[in-house]
Amino acid sequence: MTTRLPGAKYKRVFDRGRSIKGRLLVAWHLSSEDADRQAGVVVSKKSFHDAVDRNRAKRVMREAFRLLVKEGAAPERTEWVLIGRAALRGKKCGDVERELRWVFRQRS
User: Fold this and answer.
1) Would you call 27 helix, strand, or coil by DSSP?
2) For the segment 7-16, what is each residue's pLDDT rounded down to a tens digit?
3) Rounded CA separation 74/46 (Å)
4) Coil, helix or strand for 55?
5) Largest alpha-carbon pair distance within the chain?
6) Is residue 28 within 8 Å of residue 54, measured between CB atoms?
7) Is the pTM of this model over 0.85?
8) What is the DSSP letter of 6?
9) How far apart are CA 59 and CA 49, in angstroms?
């Protein structure tokens, strides 16, 4: 099973979900019975001007989420859209993992 959220589900998460604002990212989440543990990532050109920086930010967020799902720390039956903030630039996967753990606790 993949942890990537299909593009068609982003709008549903934004329309019906709730947001949690963190230091490195903003996390939108939607819990439902038919949801899988999946996340989509978004990084704007306004926050990250260079494509290299945008792609790295997306890669780091995806990997941190994947590791938390593998570990079982991510909430079940929840879909996520993670929006990278400018503070994410230069951060390591461990930093994003800590932020996501905090976000998961805030959700409850």
Assistant:
1) strand
2) 999 999 999 9
3) 29
4) helix
5) 39
6) no
7) yes
8) P
9) 16
